[in-house]
């Protein structure tokens, strides 16, 4: 017969110890429940933590059914091997819950609230439910899996470790990688992606995303939407894509490509390159891009216009001619400045076809790659 423990509406502390197949009901209060048996009879327990901000610790993955209940709860699994064919099922319930799991193949539901799933990457299934939910693989850094890195595709709903183990991800909006080299891909909605240390690749897809590369040589793609991209330290590459994006390179020699839309570019410290590939990348007037910290003299920053054909009436990819403050003469391919605004004429009509506000009042030909 299963051992049944019924708690109170206060703060309960319950430990499984040598008992097998226990049923634990703790009702109200901020409770702590410890399933600490780690042999082959440690599983097959049933837990209802009830209301309150509860902590459930589980030492053996083996057919446990656990319901954290309402409140901002924490579930921790130490990673002991499961019994053959027996998997845990853990439900967060209401509230912003936190799951820390080193299990091998169990199912976790956040239910309602903004939940966070911490995982090493062992074939688990995470379902965020309603709310804004996050999967975080930083636990890998303190496990035997350290150094493998993780590949996360929120749009397709899976994560994969280097050795090919997959985890199923459902209704997860945000992702955090490891200290190794990770790939994180968002969805068509709003996502927050954090690469951490290592040389990471982050791709927002649709929606208004926030991408944080962390330390290392990272590549960030905002894609569609009004995105915020943060390279942090390292020589990073930031691509805004379509939309009105904010790009911050951070420390290091970074490449910033705003793409289409009204973009705001900050290179940070280091010799940064601000690249424009089409005249539509930075339109004339209020929709022009802004470079906030262009420092060609003190840091070696440069504006790269080489991908833009400076003369659309002539075949090939033609280079610009820098004419300083002089007015356009009606010759295609002229690049000039007035005040802080840089402008180029690519069709020879004597009018600007694109503009960039780089914040300086004097520019030289050496400030550009033409």
UniProtKB/TrEMBL annotation:
Principal location listed in the UniProt entry: secreted
Pfam family, one: HemolysinCabind
GO CC term, one of those recorded: extracellular region
PROSITE patterns in alphabetical order: HEMOLYSIN_CALCIUM (PS00330)
Protein's cellular compartments: Secreted
InterPro entries on file: Hemolysin-typ_Ca-bd_CS (IPR018511), Hemolysn_Ca-bd (IPR001343), RTX_toxin/Mannuronan_C5-epim (IPR050557), Serralysin-like_metalloprot_C (IPR011049)
Keywords in alphabetical order: Secreted
Domain of life: Bacteria
This protein's record includes keyword Secreted: yes
Transmembrane spans: none
Single GO term (MF): calcium ion binding
Keyword Secreted: yes
PANTHER family, per database record: S-LAYER PROTEIN (PTHR38340:SF1)
Designated name of the protein: Putative secreted protein (Type I secretion substrate)
């Amino acid at each position: 017969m299963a051992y049944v423990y019924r708690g109170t509406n206060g703060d309960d502390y319950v430990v499984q110890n040598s008992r097998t197949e226990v049923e634990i009901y703790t009702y109200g209060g901020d409770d702590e429940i410890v399933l600490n048996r780690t042999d082959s009879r440690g599983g097959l327990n049933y837990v209802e933590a009830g209301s309150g901000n509860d902590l459930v610790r589980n030492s053996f993955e083996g057919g446990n059914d656990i319901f954290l209940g309402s409140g901002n709860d924490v579930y921790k699994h130490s990673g002991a091997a499961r019994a053959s064919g027996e998997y845990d099922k853990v439900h967060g319930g209401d509230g912003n819950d936190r799951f820390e799991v080193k299990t091998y193949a169990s199912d976790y539901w956040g239910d309602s609230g903004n939940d966070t799933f911490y995982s090493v990457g062992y074939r688990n299934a995470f379902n965020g439910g309603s709310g804004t939910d996050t999967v975080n693989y930083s636990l890998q850094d303190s496990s035997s899996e350290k150094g493998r890195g993780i590949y996360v595709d929120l749009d397709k709903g899976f994560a994969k470790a280097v050795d090919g183990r997959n985890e199923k991800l459902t209704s997860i909006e945000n992702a955090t990688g490891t200290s190794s080299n990770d790939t994180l891909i968002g969805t068509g909605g709003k996502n927050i992606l954090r690469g951490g240390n290592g040389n990471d690749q982050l791709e927002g897809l649709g929606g208004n995303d926030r991408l944080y590369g962390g330390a290392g040589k990272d590549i960030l793609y905002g894609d569609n939407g009004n995105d915020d991209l943060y390279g942090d330290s390292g020589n990073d590459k930031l691509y805004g894509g379509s939309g009105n994006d904010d790009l911050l390179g951070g420390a290091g020699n970074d490449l910033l490509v705003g793409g289409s839309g009204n973009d705001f570019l900050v290179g940070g410290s280091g010799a940064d390159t601000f690249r424009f590939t089409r005249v539509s990348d930075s339109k004339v007037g209020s929709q022009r891009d802004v470079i906030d910290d262009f420092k060609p003299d003190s840091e070696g920053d440069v504006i790269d216009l080489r991908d833009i054909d400076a003369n659309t009436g002539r075949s090939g990819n033609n280079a610009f001619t820098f004419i300083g403050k002089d007015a356009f003469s009606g010759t295609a391919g002229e690049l000039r400045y007035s005040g802080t605004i840089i402008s180029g004429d690519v069709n020879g009509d004597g009018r600007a076809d694109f503009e960039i506000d780089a914040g300086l009042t004097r520019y030289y030909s050496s400030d550009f790659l033409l």
